[in-house]
Amino acid sequence: MTSPRPPAPTEDLLLPPAAAATPEGGPQAAPASLGRDAWRQLRSRPLVWACLAVIALIALTAAFPGVFTALLSDDNGRCELSHSKLGPTAGHPFGYDLQGCDYLAQVVRGSRPSLLTGIAVTAGALLVSVVLGLLAGFYGGWVDNLLSRATEVFFGLPFVLGATVILVAFPRHGLGAMTLVLVVLGWSTMTRVMRSQVIAVRDADYVRAARMSGARPARLMFRHILPNAITPVIVVAMLNVGNVISGEATLDFLGVGLQYPAVSWGLQLNTAQSYFLDHPYLLAFPALFLSATVLSCILLGDAVRDAYDPKLR
Length: 313
Fold this sequence. Notes:
The chain is mainly alpha-helical. The protein contains 15 helices and no strands. The longest helix is centred in the middle third of the chain and has 29 residues, at 111-139.
């Protein structure tokens, strides 16, 4: 008596998992990944969209201040001393500043140096951190010791206090010089994060396979290690934008940053402090714009960090 023959395999079982049809017959969903999961989590949060809207609005005012001032002011940018320190009205919701200029237009103009400084300093510090962190984490040994000791020295320097001391020593400086000083003082934290990520990735199987296949150190660092170690550093950089903007405003407020006739939120706060009791709007409006920008950058960075950290889900 012959044993029953096993059933023939179906067509779906003969196909590889990626080619098997879904129960509905439609295309199979894309494979899960950390980036897709993070984006799915971010776009489902209303707070993220609110922060992006605020940052986009400030970015547009910084890029095209003349367009916004023309729309918001009906005096064609003229300043009349007879309007000095007049309060908000229907046509001028922010009132007038000390020179009789529309204050809303002045606050809009003040967004450019703050946002430019935040982006430029963060980009420069990120570039320095990526290079130094890659070298220290990949080579180790005396290279790691040298760069780590230098990072610790700069990490111990107070950000605002160190910038104040340097800028006071060079009174004739502009936005470029202040940006350079802030980059010099602001790369240490991201470098430490980059170094730790490179150390965690450099002994991975795919890096060992690339090394055994004859890949050069530069290719190993920039092709195999950097793409898998850069994400936490970018998250820290996003958080750093808000800190730099607040630091730039602090330096302007203390009188060691930008100088008149430049326009910035910190300078406006510096001028308004003497008139706060009689004209509180002079302090309130630039402080509101500054706080909204810094808070949006920090909250967006926190949301991205939470989305990319599996432990916080």
